[in-house]
Every structure is written in structure tokens, then in C-alpha cells.
Amino acid sequence: MCGIVGYVGDSKSIEVLLGGLRRQEYRGYDSAGIAVIDVDGHLDSRKKAGKLQALVDELESNPIADGATGIGHTRWATHGGPTDRNAHPQLGDNGKLALIHNGIIENFFELKEELLAEGAVFTSDTDSEVAALLVGKAYQETKDVTEALRQVVARLHGAFTLLVVHEDQPGVVVGARRNSPLVIGLGDGENFLGSDVAAFVEHTRRAVEIGQDQIATIRTDSVSVTDFDGNPVETKEYEINWDASAAEKGGWSSFMAKEISEEPEAVAKTLLGRVVAESVRLPELDGIGDEILENIDRIVIIACGTAAYAGMLGKYAIEKWSRIPVDVELSHEFRYRDPILTERTLVVSISQSGETMDTLMAVKYAKEAGAQVLSICNTQGSSIPRESHAVLYTHAGPEVAVASTKAFLAQVTALYLLGLHLGRVRSTINPDEIAAAAAELNDIPEKIAEVLLSAASIKQLAHWMTDTKSVLFLGRNVGFPVALEGALKLKELAYIHAEGFAAGELKHGPIALIEPGQIVFVIVPSPRDPLSLHPKVVSNIQEIRARGARVIAIAEKGDAAVLPFADEVIPIPLAGSLFEPLLAVVPLHIFAMELSAAKGLDVDQPRNLAKSVTVE
Ligand code: F6R
């Protein structure tokens, strides 16, 4: 939540800052602002409530002089509503210092009382202004931004990334981080800071990780990083493995449309190099070691939202192939109930961003409790992998639309690979079964591409439903997490009440919701399903049809048994039961996106949300 960018280079700060904010707007879009130190050494700032465009318009009507040093912020509001005055930067030292903040300063109230007692005047309702005034005060004594920030972070509780510039020190941007993301971009005669690499990937693909409780000072020709006590720390440079064009819309109507079109590629890239000679190899797990993997007696998957639904699918596959019991828990619930963890527990965290605070905290907790931690993550150099014993990167490419689509498919793919890897290491699955499952996975990208061909008819369906007030989703077994994912996407994108249910649970209560005209999506298992769930789901369809529901079935191509009972059928290619979710979810992603677009909503930036949830 909140996107941050900092720049020192030549006199084009405004362009760099606005570009960095545009690429990070998915992190928050309640307000945006920039501060620049111009060539005469004067600090000026502009900020505006609303999306980035409001700031761009403001800068056009009320321009500021450009300069070589600047910071920019796009906000997801926590303390204080989304107004101009609460937008960042917040100023200190009589307007000579500007500060931007991502996170929450938990002890801001005490600090504010202290400042008020000293006569400080506040111009916003934010916790961030407390930090700006404190750093300003410290600067008056230290005359050094890095030192001033170091003194202040020692007093702050909570999670924060802070970036500061002061007009008396042009050519310097200082950033500090605790439990919120910050990364350095290394340029040629210019350097950058960003919440993620999207902030500067347009200018450089060389990045440097900043660890917890560290302070980075960037100048045009140098970068230095210390811990909060001022001791120099060693940093690790890495190359960003995607270029700026990957984070552009490239002619699509929205990032989400583009990202759904990339779902086949997201699965293919996640498989790449991991299915070798009809078997599965995950060298990334070497950090944990086969001996430990052979001895683990329980797996706990922790994640939030869509990533947790991927985790639910992972449970089916991992238990089947490795015979290790798997629990799936929401990260924020997991850590506060004193969970039982031993050195034989493998905790698997799943996160697209690698920055979700709830998951990050749960990972730290699990590690401290002695469990082995493996993270499945899509974002190189992010916080969660750094806190884990091993990381299995998904290679879905940058996901910009706030609601996750292609990353979900990549996460499920990674979990299935993990299940096969564990099954091989523990000899709970024979090589033929591994080869068959690996072949199924290898075929998935092409089959998803086939599902994408039905996009036009799904769009039509969505256009008929713009007045719909409520939609239910039903699935059994692996169809259940798909139903949950379909409902979540519809809620967040189209603002329609939607619920996902296990089809077998229907008669235990939810069937009371069915009234004439109620739209129900049903994920129908294959008639070839070895568990014989197909007739049961067809019976469920009949039960709701008898009560007036309108049924849209997602069913295997050629499934004649479902046709007489469904109002609409969206066909998907044939696949083994465990693999069907990777196909069945695709029409649901398209449907939610199209319904949102048909209602004239912002598909990429739904209201009240942000992509990286970096506050608890
Ligand atoms: C829903 C969605 C969210 C995320 C969740 C976890 O479409 O995108 O539910 O899945 O916030 O985010 P990550 O995967 O970044 O930890």
C-alpha cells in the first residue's frame, strides 16, 4: 500500500517521479504528490487527492520548477481521509524538508502529543506528519538528513518506509525501512529508490535489496546503506528479469485484460526448467534439503485472498502426491492463535507481491517458532522471500491490475510442482504417475489458450447481467476453491454481492438464498472424474433449478449430462480432475472483468483496494 519513488540525477525529476508513480499507482490511488528540489536549491511540492491524473492536472495548472532531486508518493489512506491535506509529501523544518511514508506509525499519538506540547502546528490528520516534523527538528541539530532520519526511526513503532529530502542538502535522498518495502535502483549518474522495482525499471534494471531496519542514502554517484545504528551493511545487487514494456498495457483495454491473456504464459514460465525428463526438479528447495523434506510431518500453507485459494488447491495436490497432511490458513488468523509448529512443520507462504504484511509477519513468526519456511512468490527481491529458508518463484511477470489473475494460475502451478517434488523425494508417488502429472501440467498453457477463445461469449453474458445484484458460485472438491475465487473477483471488480459455496454444503443452509432468477455459476467436475462427483453436482444443479435459479455451468467440452439443466454452458477442454481448476477459473476471471467494464467501473483499480497490502 502506497507507492514511493525517490530520485537523484539530472534535472528531470518531475518526469522520473511521475513515471515511477504511474507504474506504482496499483499500490494505492487515494492521492498522489511530489516534492522537488529545483536547480536553485529550493524545495517545492504539489499534492492532490484522487488518482495520479489529478496531480498531473494540478502540475499543469500550477507548475513547479524541475530539479535533480525529488520524491513522489501515491497513497492508500490509513490515518486521515483521502484529502489534499492528508496527501504526501508532508513537510517539516518550516517547509524546507519533505517526507513521504508507507505504513503505519503505531505510536504516532504519543509523539504527536509531545510535539503539540512543544508548540508544533499540524496541517494534516496523518501519522506521517509526525515523522516529518520530528525529522525536521532532528535536522536542525544534526544538519544531516541521514543522521536526522536515523535518530527519528529509533523512536518509531510499527511498519514504515520513509523517504526524506531537505533543501539544504540537494542531491541527497534518504530512505528508511522497517517491515515495508524499499529497493534501490542503480543508474548511470543517477540513482533511485522505490517501493518496488516498477518505480524505476524504465531507467535501469540494476536493483539492490535493502534489508529490515536499514537506511539508504542515495546521491547521483553513490549509494550507501547502514543499519539503524549507523553500521554499514553489505548489500546484494540483482538484475530485474523483466523490462518496462512488460508492465505496459500494450494495446489492451486494461492491465487485467492483458494479464488474463498472459495466463497461459504465466503457467508455462512457472513450469520452465522444472519439469525435466518427465520428472520434477526444484533446485530452489536445496536450501531446505531433501533430508528435512523427507522428515516433515505437516505442511501449513499461509496466504491471504486469492493466494489462499491457490493454497486450498495446493492442499488437494500435495496431500494426494506426498501424503503429508496440509492445513491452509489465512496469514492474519494463523499467527494470533498460538499455532502448533515444530521443526518438522513446513510452512509454505504464498504471495504475489512478496510484501503482504499479514503473510510477512506470519512467516517471521513461523521461522522464530522453528518451522522450515518456503515461500512461493512472484516478486524478486521482495520481503517475504528474504525472510524464508527457500523460495520458489512463480514467473508470471509483473502483475499490475490490483486483482490477481495470472499470478493465481502461476501459484497453483508452483504448488502442484511442490506436491510432485515432495512425492518424488518421499517416494509416495511412482515415476509414471509423476510423468503423467507433469505431462498434464505441460498441456495446461495450450488448454488455457483454448478457454481464452470463449472470451467473446463470456463478455456477452456479462453485458446481459449489468443489473444483477447477487451471484452465487458452487463447486465441489477442487471446484470449491474455484468457486471462492470466482466470487471474490466479482465482489472486488464489479461490486456485486457474491458468495462461493461447496456444492455439498448447499442443503445445509445456503439453498435458502435461491429464489427465482438467482444467478448461480456451477463448476462441474468431469464425467470421467474418478471420485464420481459429476452426478452429484448435476443433482445439485437440478435442486437449484427446481427453485428458479439460472445456472451457468462451467463444464468439460461434450458433457451432455449437464446441457439439459443449465441455462448457459461455458465449455473447457478435457483435463485430469486435479488440473481442471486451472481451466475453470479462467472464464470466471474474464466474467468478473467484463462485468466490471460493462458497469463502467475501473477494472484495474477497484475502489478501496490496493495491490500490496503492506499494513496489518
Ligand atoms: C484478489 C487479490 C488479493 C490478493 C491478496 C494477497 O484478487 O488480488 O486477494 O491475492 O491480497 O496478495 P499477495 O499475493 O500479494 O500476498
Q: What is the CATH homology-level superfamily of the largest domain?
A: Aminohydrolase, N-terminal nucleophile (Ntn) domain
Helix-strand category: alpha/beta
Q: Nearest-angstrom radius of gyration? A: 25 Å
Query: What number of domains?
Result: 3
Please report the first level of CATH classification, the CATH class of the largest domain. Alpha Beta
Characterization of the model:
The protein has 616 residues and is α/β, with parallel strands linked by helices. It folds into three domains: 3-246, Aminohydrolase, N-terminal nucleophile (Ntn) domain (Glutamine Phosphoribosylpyrophosphate, subunit 1, domain 1); 249-452, Glucose-6-phosphate isomerase like protein, domain 1 (Rossmann fold), CATH 3.40.50; 455-598, Glucose-6-phosphate isomerase like protein, domain 1 (Rossmann fold), CATH 3.40.50. Helices cover 35% and strands 23% of the residues. It is built from 18 helices and 26 strands. An eight-stranded antiparallel beta sheet has the order 3-2-4-1-10-9-11-14, with helices on one face. α3 crosses α4 (128-142) and α15 crosses α18 (581-598). It starts with a strand and ends in an 18-residue tail after the last helix. The model has no long low-confidence stretch (mean pLDDT 95). Bound molecules: fructose -6-phosphate. Fructose -6-phosphate (F6R) binds at residues 304-307, 351-353, 356, 359, 403-404, 488, 492, 612-613.
